[in-house]
Amino acid sequence: MGSTRRRPLFVPALLCVLVFFVARPSTAGGEARGGAGGDSGAGARVMRLYEDASAVERQYEEGRRRAVALRAEADRAARTRARAGHGRVAAGGGPAGVARPTRGRRDVSRTESGEGTEAPGSARGVSGLAAEETRARSRWRAAERRNAVLAGARRTVLARLEEARSALEAEAEASVAAGSCRGAVRLGRPAAGHRPGWVAPVGTYRVSAGFGEGGGHWAHRHTGQDFAVPVGTPVRAVGAGRVVRVSCGGAFGIAVEVEHLDGDRTRYAHLADVTVERGRRVAAGEWIGQSGTTGNSTGPHLHFEVRTGARPGAAVDPVPWLARHGIAVR
Asked: Which pTM does this prediction carry?
């Protein structure tokens, strides 16, 4: 008799994943998200692909954890079946067709009444455990196949993300060479900030050069704190304020400066793109640009610095300054 089981549901679901993540436009002519007026340049493509990569990475990690759990479940089922089979042999069980000696009327009555027929060591019990093991291994193998498809989608999206980042770097370098920024771009997010108080300038990062460090990359001492992040990472205003400067060129490359309500200023340098213009009021957490490696930079990172006091202000260590505003840099 042929099997009547339906095809696993993960197949059409994964086809949808591939259509969305792999066939999605990634060229400059591709449609941008974020409504009318959305930007279709490299910066917007990086953001779209960054979000796609994050989504498929989450699915892949969830699938990997599920596959590990399902494999453990299958292994437990195999051990249970093996113990049950061993117990049946030890209890005198044998191949089908070999009669077991009876041990009195009481035992025969229990058998005739149906009691104990599902004992783990019985032939019927062992058969049921074997079937459960087969089902568990089938679920595990299905999860592994699903993860293989997700891994392929993940590789495709990451490759396209790297291409878009390279294009964004090229656009940024051309702007710096011309000494003129291309103007604010839209990244498909609401303009208004959504977080009260103060936030870190980037989400996930690795701290690199710190304040006051010496080296051949700076004329004197390092005037800020560097956050190592990939090209195209969203850069956020750490607090509410007004954009007082957008520059393009020199040691800082593409940079944005924000004056906060208390008069302190924060600078975000070596950017690849900006999303704000001079005079714009920003809220804490609002995207003001994308990280890059323009200007005097040896690799992708955000140079963040704080200036206080009388204009133009003296640079102070950003780490304790952020700590005073409730932001711990780790």
From this structure: 0.67
